[in-house]
Each structure stands twice: as C-alpha cells, then as structure tokens.
Amino acid sequence: MKVGVLALQGAFSRHATLLDRVGVTPVEVRTPGQLADVDALVMPGGESTTMSMLLEISGLREPLADRLAGGMPVLGTCAGLILLARNVADGRSDQRSFGVIDIDVRRNGYGRQLDSFEADLDVAGFDLPFHGVFIRAPVVERVGGEVEVLARVDGLAVFCRQGPVTVAAFHPELTGDTRLHERFVEAL
Amino acid sequence: MSDVTRATGTQLVKRGLAEMLKGGVIMDVVDPEQAKIAEDAGAVAVMALERVPSDIRRDGGVARMSDPEMVEGIKAAVTIPVMAKARIGHFAEAQILQSLGVDYVDESEVLTPADEAHHIDKWAFDVPFVCGATDLGEALRRISEGACLIRSKGEAGTGNIVEAVRHLRSIMGDIAKVTRADQAELFDWAKRLQSPLPLVQEIAETGELPVPMFCAGGIATPADASLVMQLGAQSVFVGSGIFKSDDPAPRARAIVEATTNYRDPVILAKVSRGLGRAMPGLEMDTLETRLADRGW
Predict the structure, then answer these.
(1) Distance between CA B16 and CA B148 in Å, rounded?
(2) A113 contacts on B by Cβ (under 8 Å)
(3) ipTM, interface predicted TM-score of the complex
(4) Which residues contact B285 (CB under 8 A, 6 or more apart)?
(5) pTM for this predicted structure
(6) A75-110, pLDDT tens digit by residue?
(7) CATH code (residue A68)
(8) Structural domain that includes position A151
(9) Which residues of chain A neighbour B24 with C-beta distances below 8 Å?
(10) Cα-flanking dihedrals φ and ψ of residue B216, to 5°?
C-alpha cells in the first residue's frame, strides 16, 4: 500500500512524517507519473490558490480528478479540504475544486491569522479529545446528507467523511497526535 | 458563546502559518496592482513595503513601514496572506501593523533601523514575526525574542545570490556541527553563538531550527530559487527580482514553479526559457550600504 502526499506546496513534509510514524512509507507526488503509482493520497494544508495553479501547470489536475472519481481514498486538510469540496466561496474566480465531498466551504471563513486558533475537539470514535490547530481556516457552511460529520466547533463541521474522502478544516500534521492518520491508513 | 476554548496567538498557531507557506514564494509588492499580479502568479503570500529594496538602495533616505492605506488596499486586493515590514526595533510600527490585521510582520533590515541595540519584543504580540539572520547565532537570538520564522538575509536589492548562499551555508553548516557536538561542547556553542543554551540543546537534539527557515535577498531567477532550496531553504522571498525585471508576471510564475520542482533540472530548464532580462545585478564590492549588517 503506497500513500502519496501531494507535494506541490505547503505542509506536506509534516504529513509525511506522521504517515511514516504510523507505519507507511509516504511518497511525494508532484507529477502524473508519481500519482499513478500511489493507492491513496494526502492533500496537505498550504495556499489553495497556489496549489490550484500548480495542479494545472503540472498536468496533475485531470489524472487526479480521474483517480478521485474512481474512488481513491484521500485525506484533505485545510487547503486540501477546499480543493476537495463541492463549492468554494471567497476563492479566486478561476479556482476550481474537485467536488468529491458534498460540502460548501468559505475560504478563510474563520478569519485572518489573528483569528487562527487551537482548541480541543471531541471527535467521533476517539476516546480522548483531539487537539485541532486552525490556521486561517475554511468554514464548512453546508453539509450534504451523505456526509458524516466527525467533529464540530460551535455547531459547524470541522472534520467530515463521505465514502473514501476524509477532510479536516484543521491541521493534524502540526501536532504529534497520529490518531487521525492511523484511522485513515487503517481504512485502506 | 463558544463550545470549545479557543487559544489564539500561541506559538503553535504562529509557527503553523509559516508551515503552510513552505515550498512557496513570498513576493514583495508596493501596491494592490502588484499584489494581484503576485497572487495570479501563484505567490503563497505578499510582503507589503514602501519601496522595493533596489529602489531604497538607489534613492536613499529613511525607509519606513508602508502607509496603512496601502496595506489595507493590498489586503483587500488578494485572498492570500499579507505580510508587512516594520523597522528593526520599531515596536510602534509593529503595533500599527497588528491593528491593521496583517498576517505576518517582518522586522526587516531592508528598512532603516529604529533602534541600534534592541529588536522588538515579539512575545508581546499576537501577530507572528519573521526576522532575518546571517548566521545561526543571529537566528537563535531572534527566536529567543519570539520570531516564529527565520529568513536568511542575503543582500536585498542586488539581484546577486552570493550573500544568500553565504548565509544559508553558514546557518546549515553550524546546525550540522551543533548536531555532532557532545553535551560539554554545547555550553561553548551557546557562548560562541551568543544564544540561549536551551535553544542550542534543542538544535543538537532535532538537527533543525525550532521554526521554519526561508531565504531572502538576491533571488532573481528560477535557478536562484532552486539553488537556495537545495541548500536547505524551505521557501523563498523575492523582492526586487520580480518587479524590477523586464516582464514580472511570467518570471514570478516561473520562480513559483522552480520552487516546487527545485530538484528537477528538466522542469527548471523549461521554466527558465524566454523570461526576458532579469533585474540588473550589483557586485558586492560596489555597495555603499550592506543591509545585512543591520541587526544585532
């Protein structure tokens, strides 16, 4: 089982470190060839506008859309969540998302950096709280009927799953807590 | 009333934004039009300043924080993070920038220093700070003052990469040496680096700075970006290199692609083609002012 980490920009090396810790060898994905070689993918936090542009230039956009349509398991955090969502508000007009999880999100919906925060979250299936770090985080404004919400902040979904697609508005890669990555890898 | 306890302005949250900017390009901009061009080209953030370093060099005079109106215009023009420069030691400028809601403050040697002995107490702020460094000791002193991101200084406004390389090699080289030192030697390292012992011990254990390290000062081409990334920088700041070149937008985009694919010479060759003239560069021994010497 090969798990790729989309390595165009952002906190990809932090995700790779956690994947390594839960026992899988991560593969950095920057080209269509590298994507073809992995069984699952992590899409990290970073700037979604930058990643979106690099997806086009690198020729990854179409093959990645095909793999996602084919049911490849994927974990998206923050910018990754935005790229996987059905609809994106406050993005750039030319920004396109893959639309493989039925949620609507607002970019930087929690505000700018001064509003960035950390908080303990109650996560479905975890005995102890999970420490969530939210950096200029997106707000999930609508959740479709097929989407399972695994954690909320003030009533708003921050961790969701729909079939093979798991997304978090926070950054599990910034803490040493491996439970979220373990859960993703165990389901593969 | 919130159902969770939110902690803001913490080290984790401040360093977290720097983590999100890794593998990216932060571009100097002086107005909203340039900020739009930078965002269109794939910048991960823009840096607002009054004049780009090569103009500061040419025109002289005291270089200060941008006009708040300009900072707000730039914030309104783009969706990516906005950083802004304050003078070294000028905590009032930093307070103003924080009140404007910028995402990062750069306490920068490119502007004219306001204090010849003291840097800003960055722990007193909720907004995170980036600071320049020429060597490991300077980096650790800035981190001990609360900086959450370090950039090697290079020599801004020259289009000459030689100083950036010197500073990166110095920082990375000393980190490697500290990692090999035994416990007794670490006391001497702390003394030589004029840095707090606990930070030196942390580097000995982890083999890296406790905060991300980016590179600034002299990057003018995609190849320059690749060079400094291969030397250990985790992102690049580009100042005069973009908007003082013949054709800023394609060059900006090429430097973004080069930063992602910094280890792939085939892609680097492709993106380096036909970009027009880079900014005119300067030899170090012709400089009247060495900006990197500012900071203590």
Answers:
(1) 9
(2) 13, 17, 81, 102-104, 127-128
(3) 0.96
(4) none
(5) 0.96
(6) 999 999 999 999 999 888 777 899 999 999 999 999
(7) 3.40.50.880
(8) 3-186
(9) 9-10, 46-47, 50
(10) -140, 165
